[in-house]
Amino acid sequence: MKKIIILSGAGVSAESGIATFRDADGLWEGHDVMEVASPQGFENNPTLVLDFYNQRRAQLHTVEPNEAHYCIAALERNYEVHVITQNVDDLHERAGSTNVLHLHGELLKARSTSNPNYIVDWTDDITVADSCPEGSQMRPHIVWFGEEVPAMETAIELTAQADAVIIVGTSLQVYPAAGLMHYAPQETPIYLIDPRPNLKSNGNLTVIEENASTGVRKACDMIHLSLTNT
Ligand code: APR
Fold first, then answer.
1. Taking the model in full, what pTM does it have?
2. Over the stretch 100-127, which tens digit does the pLDDT of each residue have?
3. Catalytic one among 82, 102, 104, 141?
4. Per-residue pLDDT tens over the stretch 7-19
5. Radius of gyration over alpha carbons of the chain, in Å?
6. Taking phi first (over 0 means left), then psi (-120 to 50 degrees means alpha), and beta for anything else, what does residue 126 get?
7. What are the chain's domains?
8. Which residues take part in binding substrate (predicted)?
9. Residue 150, by phi and psi: left (phi above 0), alpha (psi -120 to 50) or beta?
10. DSSP state of 190
């Protein structure tokens, strides 16, 4: 079965009503990234950081997947699909995708600050009163700036075997995730979907200047054409 890799960022959830990070009125506009999304920020003011993620987790219960998430999930009918996402929402899963790798963690999980292997599902607020069985403070299961991206090795292995890649809704500003596309095999077609792309079509890269819900559908049609003709 042909293998398709999806590399998604905040833009794939924009039409579901979740703010991106770097667009106008994006998440980082109102916040100092290092204050709300770094280990130092958490040490300095755990309540501020916990509240930042509590607000985003609460919003998750009010939004739905959009056409782009459903279109990506439907690809699984004909291909082996791996979604490698920088997003911490669960919209890919709720749309039906079954292989989702979260490079930057998951809003709906929490972990112990002393035992990184103690990771539990968490749908409500995390407060400074919440501790793990060993008595250590619980924190969002999110990869903060300056922290390792544990899933990167798996992501590279998957991308190196791709027969087609869709990149959707990411400004490609944050490494190592932004470098993932370069691990795809030389001839593998890559489709990049973004209403304000910062790359141009070139060689095996096709840029689709559309919102995710429209652009992903177009990319899927192009993939069907290219993979059934090979
Ligand atoms: N459809 C598709 N793409 C969109 C849409 C849309 N409706 N709306 C905006 N975009 C695009 C923007 O043009 C931009 O290129 O989505 C991208 C969002 O970029 P960022 O806000 O930088 O989000 P992302 O690339 O996911 O950020 C990567 O940075 O702050 C960290 O950990 C955080 O995972 C995040 C990482």
1. 0.96
2. 999 999 999 999 999 999 999 999 999 9
3. 104
4. 999 999 999 999 9
5. 18
6. beta
7. 1-18+66-104+148-230 (3.40.50.1220), 20-62+105-142 (3.30.1600.10)
8. 53, 56
9. alpha
10. E
